[in-house]
Amino acid sequence: MFVVTVFFEIKPERIEAFREAMVRQAARCLALEPGCRQFDVCQDPQVATSFFLYEVYADEAAFEAHRSSQHFADFGPTVKDWIASRKLLTYTRVSERPSTH
Q1: I need a surface site. Which of 66, 82, 88, 99 has the fewest CB within 10 A?
Q2: How far apart are CA 70 and CA 32, in angstroms?
């Protein structure tokens, strides 16, 4: 599995708009991208401007398909002026979740 984390600092006046847009975008990615296995949107309860995304893709090719999708291209211009900073990191997942049986 290919894991992507993104750390965002959002301009204070755009927190609510960013949160709503990001949650909708995560749902679109999960619905439209077969290689997108998980897409969590997290917000720091102490620092409302701080957001964290945790995304899991089947492989790096699935992440590249995500980045070349139309919904990804449409999303960037919507939120670009709301973002104070952004940091993206990628990982290879080395363990799976334990079974819940």
Answers
A1: 99
A2: 10
Tens digits of per-residue pLDDT, 18-66?
Answer: 999 999 999 999 999 999 999 999 999 999 999 999 999 999 999 999 9
Domain 2-92: which topology? Alpha-Beta Plaits (3.30.70)
| Cβ atoms 1, 84 nearer than 8 A | no
| Residue ranges of domains in the chain | 2-92
What's the predicted TM-score (pTM) here?
Answer: 0.89
Query: Is the model's pLDDT at 73 over the cut of 70?
Result: yes
Q: Give me the percent of the chain exceeding a pLDDT of 90.
A: 89
Please calculate the CA angle 20-25-27 and round it to the nearest 5 degrees.
100
Q: Distance from first CA to last CA of the chain, Å, rounded?
A: 22
- Of 53, 52, 72, nearest to 62 by C-alpha is 72
Instruction: Tell me the torsion sign for CA atoms 3, 8, 23, 81.
Output: negative
